[in-house]
Request: fold
Amino acid sequence: TSPYDGRVLGWDEATGRYWQLFVNGEASSVGASSVNLRAGDTVMWYYAADGASLPSEGDTTNPDAERPELDADWPGFAGGSAGATVTTPTPTEAADLAWKYDFKDGASWATVSDLLVVGGDVYLVASGKIQRIDGDTGKPVATTPTGEDTQYICRPVYADGLIVVAYDGGKLAAYTADTLTCVWKTASFAPEGSERKYQAMSSLTVSNGFVYAMFSPQNGDNPTTEGVMVCVSLKDGSTKWVKRTGTAAQENTGGFYWAGAAASGDDLIVGDDFGKVALIDGKTGMELSSVTVSGPCRAGIVAAETSKAGEGSYLAVTKSDGVLHKIERVGDELRLAGSVKFSATSTSTPAVVQGKAVVCGSDSLKYPVNGTISVIDIATMTLEKSVVAGTGQSQSAPLISVQGDGVYAYFTCNSVPGGVYRYKLGDDAAEQLFVPEGDMQNYCLASIVADAEGNLYYTNDSGTLFKLSAAPSFAVSFESNGGSAVSTFRVAQGKPMTRPGDPTREGHLFLGWFSDEQLTQAWDFSRPVTGDMTLYAKWGEDVNGGGVRPPIDSGGLNPPSSQGDSSSSATSQSVSPSPSYSTKVVSTYGVVATRSPLSGVTQSSAALVAADDEKASSAMQGSANDASSSAKKESPAVGSAFATAADTSSASATLNPFAVAGIAVGVVALAGVMVYFVVARRRA
Reply:
């Protein structure tokens, strides 16, 4: 009987497999009764045919392992297909540390994946293991060695009872969500000889029973020049198609760096590091259409408002200029529909809520850099608000929580102390919601995730996973009385709830929500919720057929005729004015900081790149914009050193030539230092 899964296994004539004895990793040449064991010997029984070797740690798969049916509160990066928006009562005034978990496994530092929340537990990949952490206690429930590398980050996804993980070297593997049994693992999709270069930093997308993944070699702050996009079966990991890009395909396209594809009907929309946003046929991997935006897309593409067939509007962020682009799909064609500058630079995947895009970034290309969070009206592509938060670029995808008293965004900034910021949409300032203590303070690239109860989870570079407790709440369920389903809301006790989107019912008009089954007491959504309750939908007959939903609004924008051409440039595109930041950030710890606003002048996309005086130092500090948090941690003077070097470019021409030569030598030396940090230790 197999101790692995309880199956009864014996001699299999068809495959030649039987239980073999291995001692110290080698097949025994004698039977078990004839083996003389010594202290320290290891013994293993392995069900295999003659000549088989023991699998490497993490390479064992069991394709027949049962796949559990578990609900996912957070199935993937930026909320997976559900989007990064919840309606649970997340902490709004302060957050308590419920528990902490050290995932470094005794090391001084460890990389960690983005987090999943499935079945009430938290999943992460760190220290060479995939780990399931009990959501109530913070204790490991199950761990499995991966046998693979993740040098920087990876972004797992949950679907159909499986946790799917991408690994460096261009590999994918799937594990059961309960026992973390590996059910399949692919071979490397990287070009032969390049396996060690290809990294797994892009998001995974699951659609129609397939997993879509992207891998590329990192290239510092320069555009990634090659990559591979793959489609494999979620069920067994078999390959459906492989699409190579850039030099790997002998074409002038880029690779994928922190990219993420949005499912669009049966297809995908993805941005690359050369600024091309492409519509990819989900069945074949063929490119159907593309548009060019103003810089590298180092963030996920997000659906703003789409039909089941995938038509509608999508959002893309470009890193080099901090611009949000709206792209519309009409049939099998993509068109640029508008753009707005919101930040100096950004690698943040936006969240969509109530017709707004919420996205993070930074207020400067030079150190010191401060994180920002911005709110953009998607219909008009206008910037409504940008506020400065803490020190360090905000590279997280914001978590959005819709509550009775407003909409809240949660995010992090990549600097010490590595805590959590909270911003209420419409406010003039962000607040620091949680600050780690002592040696748990460190840099932070992470995005925050939430569970069904509104608890928050995140990690920082101290090697700690944090759980922050939420407010007590009541459950409000909705009986739609024949209409489309409406999800249950969790509402903070004693607070009003946000009105949900109206349900639909063919041939009927929705007349409102009522607190009684007889439909006599209309519910007032400004009223506090004082207990668990059910609301009931009331309907009237739609005699005039006026209940049809209007078509998607393009916001009245008329994109240039060249935008439908995949070879056209976006430089002539009209762009809304640069943001003017609110100048304060209020911390619950009493810290107030002031920042200088960016220019408010309307610019073309070509002019959205940094000004010429900033370009003078870009050769030195460009890589620093994306430099790893660990590099910053080990060399805190790097940023200020580059700012100083850049400032010397505007010095008077009467400077002593020997002094100028000395400065030049120093600049070259500093550039060399940064090359080392970016190449050797880069995480961003």
Residues 1-54 form one domain. Residues 548-574, 580-661, 673-684 have pLDDT under 50 and may be disordered.
